[in-house]
Design goal:
Length: 120
């Protein structure tokens, strides 16, 4: 049964991409903001940003991967009130990652004065 469900989900996601439809890939919330990465076709992603009832979509998104093996993580760079990045968790040395966090938001990257926040 599990195999049938996995095959069905794979077929649905493949047909959605082939038909030109996009779907949410990663969501990260840091109140009052909510960021949703919409995975596109041919590595063309966009980020929807919600602040309360206001919604903004960034179309100029650069997707990259950093690290390797179990430390591999995705990172999306974009402009919203300045340079920002969202990334999934990779490996951390001395940093204690909160259990319920799903990633990080980096504001004003790559400035020397950038700020990083865990998101949920």
């Amino acid at each position: 049964m599990k195999l049938r469900i996995a095959i069905l989900l794979t077929l649905l996601s493949t047909s959605a991409l082939a038909s030109g439809k996009t779907h949410p890939f990663f969501s990260c919330s840091l109140p009052p903001f909510e960021f949703t990465v919409i995975e596109g076709i041919d590595w063309v992603d966009r980020i929807e940003i919600r602040e309360g009832t206001t919604r903004f979509t960034s179309l100029d998104v650069e997707r990259d991967y950093e690290g390797s093996g179990v430390c591999l993580h995705a990172i999306w760079r974009f402009n919203y009130r300045g340079k920002m990045s969202i990334k999934t968790h990779g490996c951390y040395g001395e940093v204690q990652v909160p259990e319920n966090s799903v990633g990080q938001i980096i504001i004003d990257e790559p400035d020397d004065y950038s700020k990083s926040f865990f998101c949920y």
